[in-house]
Amino acid sequence: MSEYWKSLPRKFCETCKCWFADNKASIEFHERGKRHKENVQKRIHEIQKKGLKEYKKQKELEDEMDKIEKAALEAYEKDLQRSSGQQNSNLQQNLKSLDKQISVVEQKANIEKVINAALRKQENTSPENKTELVETPARKWYEAMTDEGYRYYWNIETSESRWDPPEESYVILEEQGIQNAENKETDKESPEDTPSLQNEENKDSNDVSSCAVGPQPRIDPYGQWVVVEHKEPVQYDLELPKLPENYVEVAIPVVKDEEPRLKFKEKTIGQLCDGDSNEEVTFKKRKFNSSCKKNARQRTIDDD
C-alpha cells in the first residue's frame, strides 16, 4: 500500500471565530480560556438584548391591534345606533303622512255627507221650496278651524285654502254643525238604506271635530317646537367568544435594560528627563554603523 499524508483534524469555534486542534485536550483548554469565556458572556448578553427588543416590538404591535379593535367596535356600535335611529325617523314620518291622509279623507267624507243631506232635504221639501233651492247657487266654500284656533276657508272643488273670507257665500261652522246633526237623525231613521260598514264609518267620522275641514294650511314655516329626548345608548350583543372559567392571566415580568456605566481611569506618566537637567528633549537620528554592512553579501568577481 502507498503511503499518504493526512492533516490533523481541526475545529472552528463560532463564538471566538478561530480554529484549533480537534481533540479533547485542545477543546478543554480553549473552553477554559479567558477569551472564550468573555466571548460567551458577550454572546449571551447580545441574545438577551435582541430578545428584549423583539418582546417590546411584539408588545407594541399587540397594543396597536387592541386599539384598532376597540375603534372598530365603537364604529360598529355607532353604525347600529345610526341605522336604528334612521329607521325610527322614517317610521315616524310615514305615520305622520298616513295621519294627514286619513284626516283629509275624513274631512272629505264629512263634506260629502253634508252635501248628501242637503240634497235629501231638497227632495223631501215641497215643489215651491225646491224651486227656491234650485235657484240658490250651491256654496263651494266651507269655513274651518285649525288646531291652534285660527279660521280659514276651503273650496271643495279646487281644494284651495285661504285665510281671508271669499266674496262668494260660504258655509259657516254653525251651519255645518246643524247639518251634521240632521245627518245623524236621517241615518237613525233610515238604517236599511246604508249597510253596517257605512254606519261604522259614519260613527268614526262624526267623532272627529266638525271644525277641521279640508287640508290645514301651514302657519309656521319653520315647524313646531319639539322636545329633545336624550336616549341612552343601546347595548348590543357583539357575540364575542366567552373566556373559560379557569382562565388565569399570565403576568409577564418587565426586564429593565440597564445600560453599563463607563468608568474612566487616570494614568500618570513619569518625566522623560530628570528635573535638574535643563536640556531639551529631542529625537536623535539613527546612525548606521559599518558593522551592519558586514551582514550583507559582498560582490565578487565571478558575479560579472
Verbal overview:
The chain is α+β, with helices and mostly antiparallel strands and 304 residues long. Among the domains are: 10-85; 141-182, no CATH class. The protein is 45% helix and 7% strand. It is built from 5 helices and 6 strands. The protein has helices spanning 24-31, 34-124, 127-135, 173-189, 196-207, and strands spanning 10-13, 18-21, 141-145, 151-155, 161-162, 170-171. A 4-stranded mixed beta sheet has the order 5-4-3-6. A hairpin with a 5-residue loop joins strand 3 and strand 4. Helix 2 (34-124) packs across helix 4 (173-189). The radius of gyration is 57 Å and the shape is rod-shaped. Mean pLDDT is 75; it is low at 126-135, 191-195 and 208-212. Residues 58-108 form a coiled coil. Keywords: Coiled coil, Metal-binding, Nucleus, Zinc, Zinc-finger. One of its GO terms (cellular component) is precatalytic spliceosome.
Element order: H for helix, E for strand: EEHHHEEEEHH
Q: What amount of the residues lies in strands?
A: 5-15%
Proportion in helices: 40-55%
Q: Which spans have pLDDT < 50 for at least 5 consecutive residues?
A: 126-135, 191-195, 208-212
Could you give the distance between the termini? 52 Å
Q: Count the E strands.
A: 6
DSSP helix count?
5
Which structural class best describes the helix and strand composition? alpha+beta
- Spatial strand order of the main sheet: 5-4-3-6
Give the CA-based shape: rod-shaped
| Rg from alpha-carbon coordinates | 57 Å
Give the overall pLDDT as a whole number: 75
Largest sheet: 4 strands, mixed
